[in-house]
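Service request form, structural biology core

Requester: graduate student, group of Dr. S.
Request type: structure prediction, single chain
Budget code: on file
Notes: please return the result as structure tokens.

Sequence provided:
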Amino acid sequence: MDGIINLDKPAGMSSAVAVALVRRLAGGRIRAGHAGTLDPFATGVLLVLLGRATRLAERLMDQPKTYEAVVKLGATTPTLDPTSAELPVAAAAVCDRAQVEEVVARFIGEIRQVPPQYSALKVSGRPAYELARRGRYIELPARTVRVYAIRVTDYQWPLLSLTVESGRGFYVRALARDIGEALGCGGYLLRLRRTRVGRFDAAAAATVDVLRLRGVVPYLLAPEM
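Core staff response, request fulfilled:
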């Protein structure tokens, strides 16, 4: 069984658990992996690769990605997402839409981005999030990432809704942090949905419930790019 499952990952499930679930539904004795992690709180397109399609992981991770994101301004969290306690920013000023639009535009193009402390990036062979959970905060170096487009789809303080098109290695959580810092009010990523990876769209993705009901085979896509 070789191919790609375009999975609509539900909130509360890690990418690793999602891959293990699809692998089990595919019979268990097969290589499996994914082409780009989604945080457990996030939903949307997770490309699960089976059999020989696992060789396509690097090529698929290089594909452009589209996200629908909701940023909460006026507060932050240690993890930059809703999985840790919210910390309100004292005297955070309400920003008007013109200010928000101007700041958001700064993050389009080739930019330098510091990854979140709670990320899977390796530091001395260990994921940064393991060190952060133990209170060891490491200065992660900024990396060059590509943002093709950002569009403000709604803004009603303190919630800012964005559509983001980005390249590989980009963290939407870090974007939420950086927008909040640039506005002087703080911010974190409240909700995230990945709607596209390359040619794979969320509208055509299979849910976990559908895969459990009908099996993997009807949703197995050819591994050709």
